[in-house]
Design goal:
two-stranded antiparallel ribbon, mainly alpha
Length: 222
């Protein structure tokens, strides 16, 4: 509406009279877009994708909050672990997330903790030593209280919770795709969320896959 209003009168100011005139012009000139109202499995699939996008935004927000917390308390960790999704990093954050916690433990304990989580014993020794040394020289906040621990714990729990929800929705989408009549099948890696959204909301032919990386159905007309 705002775009059409600007085209009609070179102004985006809103009023009921101007909106009525703009709608009349759009209808008369045939510039409107037909709305396809789906039902059955397609409608349910559309709903799931909308929910997934909202949860994905919450997941990104939770990860950003976790990044910010680590910047405050233990910024060196992001240089030691290649990814924030590293199992070794998560094991460390759950057991001894602050420098003050790390320096009270032996390197062998850190090695066992990281190695058991990541299953890469060869790298665990090097990372354990790096974490211990970084904790001794960390530039993060020195005074850690109960509120700081609560903040970090809530960040970790929110990331895990939203990721579990996304996995659950992915599984449900996979199940619902089986209810849609077979079309041509293709494989796309990894999940292209933008393509999936375009497919479901713009009604165009598009390929998309499930998070498990399996073959996907090409849906036409959703």
């Amino acid at each position: 509406m705002k775009h059409h209003r600007e085209l009609d009168e070179s102004s985006s100011a809103k009023s009921d009279q101007r909106d009525a005139l703009t709608l009349t012009n759009i209808t008369r000139e045939g510039k409107y877009i037909d709305t396809v109202i789906e039902d059955g499995s397609r409608k349910q699939l559309r709903t799931l994708v909308k929910v997934r996008e909202k949860i994905q935004k919450r997941n990104v927000s939770a990860k950003n909050s976790l990044h910010a917390a680590l910047d405050d308390y233990f910024p060196e960790l992001k240089e030691i672990f290649w990814s924030m999704d590293s199992r070794g990093l998560w094991a460390l954050l759950q057991r001894c997330p602050f420098p003050v916690d790390v320096v009270t433990r032996k390197v062998s304990v850190l090695k066992e903790l990281i190695g058991r989580a990541s299953r890469r014993r060869a790298e665990a020794s090097r990372k354990a030593m790096a974490v211990y040394q970084a904790a001794k020289e960390s530039i993060g906040l020195k005074q850690i209280g109960s509120a700081d621990r609560y903040r970090l714990r809530m960040c970790l729990e929110e990331v895990k919770r939203t990721e579990l929800m996304i996995k659950g929705i992915d599984w449900e989408i996979k199940r619902m795709l089986k209810e849609i009549p077979d079309r041509s099948v293709s494989v796309v890696y990894p999940w292209d969320r933008a393509s999936l959204s375009r497919c479901l909301f713009r009604g165009i032919r598009e390929s998309f896959v499930l998070s498990e990386g399996q073959a996907s159905r090409q849906i036409c007309g959703i």
